[in-house]
Specification:
Elongation Factor Tu (Ef-tu), domain 3; six-stranded mixed sheet; SH3 type barrels
């Protein structure tokens, strides 16, 4: 009603958006703009943000579907073994064994399900994407500096 926008969060535990003075908004058509923030507050599993210059519902509705981006320097430090999903995007994926041995494709996305995070892999052969659980039984190596994800096999996974 007052131009506040409800943000769907990738990480519902994160408070990084509550601490920002401005963010980059990236719309579905690729347009980007820096947008100052007047206020931000928690609302259950979301955050409500009031952007400067947005005073009513119609203007706020025009931002529907935009991606809200925070400067990398504002990300919290990670614990050992943790990584940011955005760092895995574009990593080359290979498989060590089984019928899919060799190059598999590239990481297109990382999705979070209630029980596991999965890498969504765009298949090099042009087929359907693979969703591979990011667990030790599949992941042999994840080297984000080298842009590489090595999987043991794709046994028990469906495409």
């Amino acid at each position: 009603m007052r131009g506040e926008i409800r943000l769907k969060l990738f990480n519902t535990d994160s408070d990084v958006l509550l601490e920002q003075r401005e963010v980059l908004l990236r719309s579905g058509d690729g347009k980007e703009e820096l947008r100052p923030i007047d206020a931000a507050r928690r609302a259950n599993e979301a955050i409500l943000v009031k952007f400067k210059g947005i005073t009513d519902r119609d203007v706020a509705d025009g931002l529907r579907g935009a991606l809200v981006c925070v400067r990398r320097g504002d990300f919290p430090d990670l614990d050992e073994g943790e990584f940011y999903a955005c760092d895995a995007i574009g990593a080359k994926v290979s498989v060590q064994g089984g019928p899919h041995q060799g190059e598999l494709g590239t990481v297109r996305d990382v999705k979070t399900y209630p029980t596991v995070d999965v890498a969504v892999i765009r298949a090099a052969d042009g087929g359907r994407d693979w969703e591979v659980p990011l667990v030790e039984s599949y992941v042999v190596k994840l080297d984000l500096e080298a842009g590489e994800l090595v999987l043991s096999s794709l046994d028990d996974l469906e495409r």
